[in-house]
Amino acid sequence: MPHTKLRRLVTISVAVTLGATALAACGSSDDNDSEADSGPVSLTYWSWTPGMDKVADLWNNGQGKKDQIKVTVKKQASGDTLVTKILTAHKAKKAPDLVQAEYQALPTLVSNDALADIAGDVDGVKDKFAEGVWQQTTLGSDAVYAIPQDSGPMMFYYRQDLFKKYGLEVPATWEQFAETARALKKKSPDTDLTTFSANDSGLFAGLAQQAGAKWWTTEGQKWKVGIDDAATQKVADFWGGLVKEGAIDNQPMYTPAWNKALNTGKQIAWVSAVWAPGTLTTAAPDTKGKWAMAPLPQWSQSEDVTGSWGGSSTAVTTDSKHKSAAAKFAAWLNTDPEALTALAKEGGIYPAATTAQTSDAFTEPPAFFSNQTDFYTQAADIAKTAAPSAWGPNVNVAYTTFNDVFGAAAKNKSDFGAALKSMQGETVADLKKQGFEVAE
Predict the structure, then answer these.
(1) Which tens digits make up the pLDDT trace of 369-425?
(2) Do residues 349 and 150 touch, judged by C-beta distance below 8 A?
(3) Extended beta strands in 61-219, E state
(4) Do the beta carbons of residue 401 and residue 423 sit within 8 Å?
(5) What structural domains and CATH numbers belong to the chain?
(6) Residue 194 and residue 421: Cα distance in Å, rounded?
(7) What is the pLDDT of residues 113-166, one digit of tens each?
(8) Pairing assessment for the beta strands 69-75 and 41-47 based on DSSP bridges
(9) Span of the secretion signal (predicted)?
């Protein structure tokens, strides 16, 4: 959408959320103080990534020392907790210079005028990221509200040994996925291909993205919510149908029962993202070396697209008095080869920068997947196919509603389509309650 239209949406939301009476457009790096370009600069960065202080030290002892820009990392919680803390600090005009923000949180932070447009300070950075990832930091405008840090391209994980035991083929399409689930049930009634879990809305959002869904878009100065669009209905009907017929399990992930199912071979596949090996290491330690990764099944043989589950960015706040300096660090952090290697080593993240995905940090497969030597080569190819997402200013409401209504539908094996309509309705109602204009 045009930048001017996004600015109007931002202005509306600031008035509603913060009760402001005199409003300005989004902060821009053009408004930076001259002190950002002269004399020593001290920046504060709120981040939850493990080892981020060690990565910042590379900057402080290298490029930062030359530029007289020092960055201090302050460890924070992630998710909605951090978003709330950022907004609270911003309301008092005391937000830090830089913040780590999940992609789906960016519209909320932008609509509250908490993030600066750093487009003028990051020329040449865009080409270092997959288009679908970069789009999440621009909100479809000419502005740049953050630099992508890590990404979560989705993939299909399966037990190689048990697929062989049951005579199953790795599904290339979702139709084949359903057939595989049914075939497994016939051969081993007590075994499930996978489960539909309603306790992590990010998984469902990623599946919808792959199908072409755009949950939040704009029409002029109005938000349009498309959570119950045709693409998402297709995804909901597909998974709801499998749950209803008992072809897959309906239990949530990340529970002791789920861990046991993975560890004992009662569940033999998992639709997840690039970070899955770390989870499997903890959840199913006895299965090391028995899993393999493949591209996500497609809706048609001719397609080659994946969704994203997770990922975050580095943003500069409108409260920073040194926006250009902060933007320079954000760009370095997420594009410099040394920084990216350190992020992978110290933070265990999968960098969003495409060059880093084939760097020395990813020449060896995850220890849990030592049997699949091309793990990261495949992962890099899959990451390039990530579909663009479309987030809005009340993702938290949509996600909470998903957990409630889809949780009930999965447990009762009831209509997923009805649950989707409830999710749509609650999200629209919340936008209106906040004072946003909504296109019907």
Answers:
(1) 999 999 999 999 999 999 988 899 999 999 999 999 999 999 999 999 999 999 999
(2) yes
(3) 69-75, 98-102, 147-159, 216-219
(4) yes
(5) 41-151+311-360 (3.40.190.10), 154-307+388-434 (3.40.190.10)
(6) 25
(7) 999 999 999 999 999 999 889 999 998 889 999 999 999 999 999 999 999 999
(8) parallel
(9) 1-24
